[in-house]
Amino acid sequence: LRNMYYSLGQQVMRQDPKYFAIYCALRPDQNTNLVSYPYYAKYAHEGDNTFFRHIDLNIRDLASSGRGANMIQGTVSLDDESPDDCTMILPGMHRHVKEWEEALTTRGLSTGALVHRIQDSMFTPDDEKRFGTKWTPQPCQRGQVRVTLPHLPHGAYGPAKGSRRTMLPWFCGLQKDLETLE
């Protein structure tokens, strides 16, 4: 997996008023005091190891205090994706975080990690039935935007079946003091 460094294209995305408005409208707290920080872009070539599954927040903190519940994250696709070479999510799983954290604790799999890599033992076939969801492809076409919650488990198929370029123009909310990030 090759990374593109912060570029003119990423700066243009972050200055797009429609993208910013979408971000504000989709945030659960509707916070409009947002800042963007430089973040990498992804450029995968055929054969690159792109497989991953994770959740971008500490599940234990989210379940106990709601920390991070108002954040969202987005990507812009620069290529047409196919259902077998795209981002995958566990639709609706963000509604079951507390119950899932209890199950992970029972299994001895709960950690204080800021990002949780989701192994097969963390989301089992029994969990699919219990929570009524399974890993589902979310292909985007060139120029489309995907916006999700960071506490929605997500990942990507791999190895890459072709070129797949995505940029990640994320905005973080400022707290009421206008100094502290969420």
Question: What characteristics describe this protein?
Answer:
182 residues, alpha+beta, five-stranded antiparallel sheet, 5 helices, 23% helix, globular
Describe this structure in words.
This protein is of the alpha+beta class. It is built from five helices and twelve strands. The strands form three sheets. The chain has a five-stranded antiparallel sheet, with no helix packed on it. It has a five-stranded antiparallel sheet with strand order 7-4-10-6-8, with no helix packed on it. Strands 2-12 form a two-stranded antiparallel ribbon. The protein is globular. It starts with a strand and ends in a 9-residue tail after the last strand.
N-to-C span? 29 Å
Order of helices and strands: EHHEEEHEEHEHEEEEE
Q: Write down the overall mean pLDDT.
A: 87
SS-based class: alpha+beta
Concise description?
This protein has helices spanning 8-15, 17-26, 59-65, 97-106, 125-131; strands at residues 2-4, 34-36, 41-44, 52-55, 73-77, 87-89, 116-117, 136-137, 145-148, 154-156, 164-167, 171-173. The chain is an alpha+beta fold and 182 residues long.
List the helices and strands and how they pair.
Blueprint: E1 2-4, H1 8-15, H2 17-26, E2 34-36, E3 41-44, E4 52-55, H3 59-65, E5 73-77, E6 87-89, H4 97-106, E7 116-117, H5 125-131, E8 136-137, E9 145-148, E10 154-156, E11 164-167, E12 171-173
Antiparallel strand pairs: 1-3, 2-12, 3-11, 4-7, 4-10, 5-9, 5-11, 6-8, 6-10
